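note to self — DONT lose this again. spent like an hour looking for the file last time. sequence + predicted structure for the chain T wanted, 320 res
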Amino acid sequence: MTAFPAHIRVRRPTMDDVSAVMTLMLARNQIEYGEADMTEEHIRNFWLASDFNMNTDAWIATTQDGRAIGYASVWHIQHVRIYTYFTALPEYDHLHIKAGLLDLVERRAWEFMAEAPVGTRVTLATGIADVNDADQQLLAQMGYRKGRGHYRMEIEMYEPPSPAVWPDGISVRPYLPEQDMHPIYETEIEAFADPEGYRPPSFEQWRHHSAGQEDFDPTMWFLAYDGETIAGMCLCKYWVGSGVIHPLAVRSPWRRKGLGLALLQHSFAEFYRRDTRVVKLMVDTENPWEAKRLYERVGMRVTQLHHQYEKELRPGKVLA
């Protein structure tokens, strides 16, 4: 257990701390890729999720005069996939603030694990930018192992994109709130299931972090139907001034038929019509369906790389 220096205080956050935590996150962003990828509203939304408890699942490290210098939070999916975010101001790295926060995170993760199904594998993971050598070294020292990661890819459109060409039998329409929420959730789970232990969020978790955002725009969720069945979808939104695709999903029977390409082009065209020229997305570095090649084909390029560092808390059966 890493002890905090005597002059450092650790407490739980309140809603009054949103701005201070935002400052900490921006400091980490500046070290990594020099751009903001969070707003205060996103922090509030995360803290207000029904499955997140600010009194048990987050910490703020402060100086004696109350200045916030470090932050960590932890959350889980079905108690078997546990995740954390942590950061501290660079000038306090020598005080081992991050190591102390990660110790607190792990103790809470062990409490989550007590609720996991008997005999299942439980892991604690976090994402770190490829350029953040210091945090990667810290995680390695604390028993984490580097695993698969995610590319951030983006396109800047200087002219209207190519029109979408839909496969035979496919029709596209925007999301209808009174009937589409559960089918969209089920489509996402099916499209991203893999044998590496993917655990989907609960429906309530998923809805809060997608349709529950203040900036949610239902006219930017595009659903491709084959008859009465969703064949694929492209859920789009705005995030810190750019267009974002999260996610693009094509169900197995309709893959390799041009549907993913058509959904991308349709989404690009709508962003362009709305005067949004930069569009971003994330893709797994080990995506088994060659998604990265598809995105490169339409002019997207890699701008960031984030690795997932994972610690096994308990060996066991992987729930896939």
